[in-house]
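Posting this for the archive.
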Amino acid sequence: MNIRTTTHRLSTKGRWLILCLILISFLTMAQAGATPKGPVTPLTIGILPDVDSLPLVLAAEEGLFEKAGLQVELVPFKSALERDTAIQTGRLDGGISDILAAAFAQNAGFAVKIVSHTDGRYRLLAAPNGSIRHVSELEGKAIGLSPNTIIEYATDMMIRDQGVDPNNVDKMSILDIPLRLQLLLGGQLPAACLPDPLAALAISQGAISIADSEDMDLAPGVLVFSSQALETKSDAIKKVLSVYDIAAGLLNAHSHDLAFLEPLLDKAQFPTGVAQNMELPTYRPAALPSPEEVETVIDWLLEKGLVDGSITFADLTAQDLWKK
């Protein structure tokens, strides 16, 4: 696995598995019969310890990139800020990100575009020994989150979906996610929004899930690449998306197989033992997010005054990459 250590959708799992086997066979035969035309184009992709990154981690672990004739280096990061800085300074070609981060980059003048949606999971959790058991009981209560991020966006969308006005809750800024988890479990926070795998870890220790992004098909995670990489490495990026589809299908087919998941989650730097409480999202084939998904995020950012009004779906997405 080439990872630097320094730092609903489809009908049945069976169909996914058949598709995976066909695609793997195709890629293997294509690689075996291909005549090298020059050096392989290298790609560096930043990942985070989250479920959005798992298809790429699995692809590296199973040698799927190599079978497709790719040279891909996955670079793990502990924070989104470090990942974004690495993309913007050219140290990465792309990375697992989210629509908000892509919009912020565009608004700041950095040329980054979305090439596909990804699938993450965010959960609104209540403290183990508290009184909150429903979203409606959050009014006037504190929710631990990181403001102006995908976490706050997911929080707003989940509580709005249950008829609660986000302005009627007390949003408490706790940027350190492990600290947010600790305060929730200790009862110092009545509620918090956490991404998986830490949400799964919290539930395993008694936290109560009162809202789940999976229940409302909320998936603002994306895979982004710099405009420079898209201009010079588009063929390699297209192959990455094909490999992503294979890995996503394998994850769907093995989503409850602990023998399959445990070593993979360890490679992805997930907390020890989290596999037993993990519910992976249903991974979709690679595709651009819908205009509605992107515009909903842009509207939220505009509502909060975080970006100007010039950003559009066309600005944020690599539509040319998907043209036949």
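The CA atoms of residues 171 and 220 lie 20 Å apart. The beta strands are 42-47, 71-76, 94-98, 112-117, 122-126, 142-145, 170-173, 191-195, 208-212, 221-226.
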